[in-house]
Automatic annotation (TrEMBL):
Family: Belongs to the NAD(P)-dependent epimerase/dehydratase family. Dihydroflavonol-4-reductase subfamily.
PANTHER family registered for this protein in UniProt: ALDEHYDE REDUCTASE II (AFU_ORTHOLOGUE AFUA_1G11360), NAD DEPENDENT EPIMERASE/DEHYDRATASE
Domain NAD-dependent epimerase/dehydratase: 15-189
Entry protein name: Aldehyde reductase 2
Keyword set, alphabetical order: Oxidoreductase
GO molecular function, one term: oxidoreductase activity, acting on the CH-OH group of donors, NAD or NADP as acceptor
A Pfam family matched in the record: Epimerase
Protein species of origin: Penicillium subrubescens
Keyword ATP-binding: no
Length: 210
């Protein structure tokens, strides 16, 4: 039995990656293409150079970009999830984006986008796995000797009134609430696909030596 035959998503399957022109997503796409998968990547604005790059490096019919300008719009993911076996949600909206103006708007955008993607995925029997890129901040910050960090840990903003805080972080609340509400949706709706999240601590960009 080959390693690919042991995978839940067989070799040659199509995987959807959101935020395909981002730093982390670009590395995920490269790994998937090297393994033999095909990739459909979402972008918020037309990015023709992205398709050209993957065409030149991996050849035709391996990568395609699709335009999803606003994650909150009804049916925004309906077309791009069709025919995919796996979904990796990497895209993240923060206040620097023109669609959000403050922390509350950023959190709402993130949560709504996550839920709409899960809803769209649940309509496709082909989808076997869905993975969200979260962050270690969703699990909380160490506070005193009694601090506990495990699979049940959540940042305090998911259980307290975050609006009462004078020092709010859009990134922290988006990642915490985005993942928390996604897990709540999965628990309530029990989709056929397996759902998981990845919580990186930090991202390092390494410049290769010549």
């Amino acid at each position: 039995m080959t390693p690919f035959q042991q995978n839940a998503i067989p070799y040659g399957s199509k995987v959807l990656i959101t935020g395909a022109n981002g730093f982390i997503a670009s590395h995920i796409i490269a790994v998937l293409l090297d393994l033999g998968y095909t990739v459909r990547g979402t972008v918020r604005t037309p990015t023709p150079w992205l398709d050209d790059y993957y065409l030149e490096k991996w050849g035709p019919h391996r990568f395609e970009s699709v335009l999803v300008p606003d994650f909150q719009k009804p049916n925004s993911f309906d077309e791009c999830v069709q025919g995919v076996s796996g979904i990796i949600h990497v895209a993240q909206a923060l206040p620097s984006s023109p669609v959000v103006q403050d922390v509350d708007d950023a959190v709402s955008y993130t949560v709504n986008g996550n839920v709409k993607l899960l809803e769209a995925a649940s309509t496709q029997s082909s989808v076997k796995r869905v993975v969200f890129t979260s962050s270690i901040v969703a699990a909380g910050y160490p506070k005193g000797p009694e601090f506990k960090l495990d699979v049940d840990s959540w940042d305090e903003c998911v259980s307290q009134d975050a609006r009462s805080s004078v020092d709010r972080s859009a990134y922290r609340e988006c990642k915490a609430q985005g993942e928390f509400q996604a897990w709540k949706w999965v628990e309530k709706n029990q989709p056929a696909f397996e759902f998981n999240t990845v919580l990186p601590w930090f991202t390092v960009r390494v410049k290769a030596s010549v």
